Amino acid sequence: MPRMNDTSRRRRFADAAREERPDLALLCLLVGMEADTGLDETGLDEAQIELDRLAGQLPFSPGGPEDWAAALARLLGERHDFRGGPADYRRLGSSLLHTVLRRRRGLPILLSVVWMEVARRAGAPVYGVALPGHFVVGFGDPYGSHVLADPFDGGRPLSSEDAATLVSGATGAPLSPSMLSPAGPLDIVLRILNNIRAWASARPERTDVRLWAVELSLLLPSHPAELRYERAQLLVERGDFMTGAKELEDYAEVVEPVQPDTAKTARHEARAARAMLN
Predict the structure, then answer these.
(1) What is the radius of gyration, based on Cα positions, of the chain?
(2) pLDDT tens digits, residue range 100-135?
(3) Cα-to-chain-centroid distance, residue 261
(4) I want to staple 126 with a disulfide (CB 3.0 to 4.6 A). Which of 53, 119, 151, 258 is the partner?
C-alpha cells in the first residue's frame, strides 16, 4: 500500500487531534509515520491489531484496580517483557509506538501508552499520569481508590512514597496532588513530541527530526506559542531564509504587546536571515 504524502499525513494528524475523543494510538502511530518512511497504512493496521491481540490475552474483568494493575504487569511486564532502560533514552525509536511494540522497549511515556491502550481495550479503568520526568499509569478512580504502576519498570506498583521519590528525583520538588491528575490524549502526544524535540536538539545533524516534531506540535489544538519561534529558527538554520524570516516577523508581531524584547530579538534575527540572501 502506498505511503501517504506529507500533506495527507499532516491533514490526517490534525483531523485526528480535533476529534471529540482523540484516538491516542492513532496519533502516536501518525507520529511514527513522520520518522519511519517504511511505515504505511498496513503498518498502522498491524500495530492496532497487535494492541488488540495483547488485550485479548488479559483475563475478563479481573477485579479492582490492584487486580487490573497486576494483570497488566503479568501480561506485558513479565510474559511479553515490555520495559525500559537507560539505553532507550538514546534511541528515537523509543518514542515511536510501532517500534516500541516491536522491540518491547521504550521511554516511560510510550510504554505507558502501550499499557493504557491494551488495558482500555480490555475494559480496564486506566489513565495516564504525567509525573514530572517520568510518565506512569493509574488504575481505578484518579480522585478516589486507585493504584499507580510504572511500565518502564515492568509494571512495578508505585506507592505514594514511590511517586514522591520519582518527582523529587526529577525536579527536587515535592509531589503535589495535581501531578496525579489524568493526562489527556493531546497532552500525552505533545509530551511525546517534546521528547522527540529534545532528542533531536542534542543531535545538531537531526534538525529534520526536530522540525517535523515542532510542526506536528503546531497542529495540535493547544500548544505553546514559542513553537512558532522555534520553527522559524529551524527554517533559517536549514537554509530556508525567506520563509524563516517571514515567520520570525509574524511571531514578533504577535508577541510584541506582551514581550517587546522577544519581538525585538525576533526581528533582528529576521533581518539577519534576509541578509543571507544577498
Answers:
(1) 20
(2) 999 999 999 999 999 999 999 999 999 999 999 899
(3) 31
(4) 119
